[in-house]
């Protein structure tokens, strides 16, 4: 029921061989995703947090971070999902190449917990791997 936010395989940073210069979780003067502090209680140590306090609430259009490449391009990465920000990956700040080398594992951007009552509708709206590949194929053919 948690969502791990990563760069899509088709993201320009993963396609063009660009070098990542900087990752910034400072969204505005008053908002840093690094200031997100989550605390909560669990009935058993192996279960996830049941009651969360201090987690930032995100909408689908909420920026998570900005990534700058060595060619001067800047990409804003959005949450794309409503929920509570559980964690940001601080490891990519000191090792930004993780975003490109291991985008689906150690190079994740953030972890978001959607509201329980919304999680089913969110997962029903996701594309399957095959549908995603078809969208990419259409996009490439219309661009050429």
Brief rundown of the structure:
The protein has a single domain (3-27, 53-142), classed as Beta Barrel (OB fold (Dihydrolipoamide Acetyltransferase, E2P)), CATH 2.40.50.100. It has 144 residues and is of the alpha+beta class.
Number of domains: 1
What is the rounded distance between the termini? 38 Å
Measured by DSSP, the beta-strand proportion falls in 25-35%
What's the number of extended β-strand segments?
Answer: 11
CATH topology (level 3) name: OB fold (Dihydrolipoamide Acetyltransferase, E2P)
Overall spatial form = globular
The largest β sheet comes out as: 4 strands, antiparallel
Mean pLDDT: 84
| Low-pLDDT runs | 42-51
Oligomeric assembly: single chain
* CATH superfamily grouping: RNA polymerase II/Efflux pump adaptor protein, barrel-sandwich hybrid domain
Q: What Rg is obtained from the alpha carbons, in whole angstroms?
A: 16 Å
Spell out the helices and strands N to C: EHEEEEEEEEEHHEHH
CATH class: Mainly Beta
CATH architecture: Beta Barrel
Count of alpha and pi helical runs: 5
Any key phrases for this structure?
144 residues, single chain, alpha+beta, OB fold (Dihydrolipoamide Acetyltransferase, E2P), three-stranded antiparallel β-sheet, 5 helices, four-stranded antiparallel β-sheet
Describe the structure.
GO terms for molecular function: actin filament binding; actin monomer binding. Belongs to the ABITRAM family. One of its GO terms (biological process) is dendrite morphogenesis. A hairpin with a 2-residue loop joins strand 3 and strand 4 (31-32). The protein has helices at residues 12-15, 91-94, 98-101, 116-124, 129-143, and strands at 3-5, 20-24, 26-28, 31-32, 39-41, 51-53, 57-58, 63-69, 74-78, 83-88, 110-113. The model is unreliable at 42-51 (pLDDT under 50). The N and C termini lie far apart (38 Å). The strands form four sheets. Strands 1-11-10-7 form a four-stranded antiparallel beta sheet, with no helix packed on it. It has a three-stranded antiparallel beta sheet with strand order 2-8-9, with no helix packed on it. The protein has a two-stranded antiparallel ribbon with strand order 3-4. It contains five helices and eleven strands. It has a single domain, classed as Beta Barrel (OB fold (Dihydrolipoamide Acetyltransferase, E2P)), CATH 2.40.50.100. It is globular.
């Amino acid at each position: 029921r948690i969502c791990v936010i990563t760069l899509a395989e088709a993201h320009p940073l993963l396609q063009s061989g660009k070098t990542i210069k900087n990752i910034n979780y400072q969204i505005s003067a008053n908002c840093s995703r690094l200031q997100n502090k989550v605390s909560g209680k669990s009935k058993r140590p192996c279960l996830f947090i049941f009651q969360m306090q201090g987690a930032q609430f995100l909408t689908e259009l909420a920026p998570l971070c900005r990534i700058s490449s060595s060619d001067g391009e800047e990409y804003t990465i959005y949450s794309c999902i409503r929920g509570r920000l559980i964690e940001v990956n601080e490891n990519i700040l000191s090792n930004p190449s993780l975003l490109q080398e291991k985008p689906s594992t150690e190079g994740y951007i953030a972890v978001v917990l959607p509201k329980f009552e919304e999680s089913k509708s969110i997962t029903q709206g996701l594309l399957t791997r095959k549908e995603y590949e078809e969208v990419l194929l259409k996009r490439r053919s219309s661009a050429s």
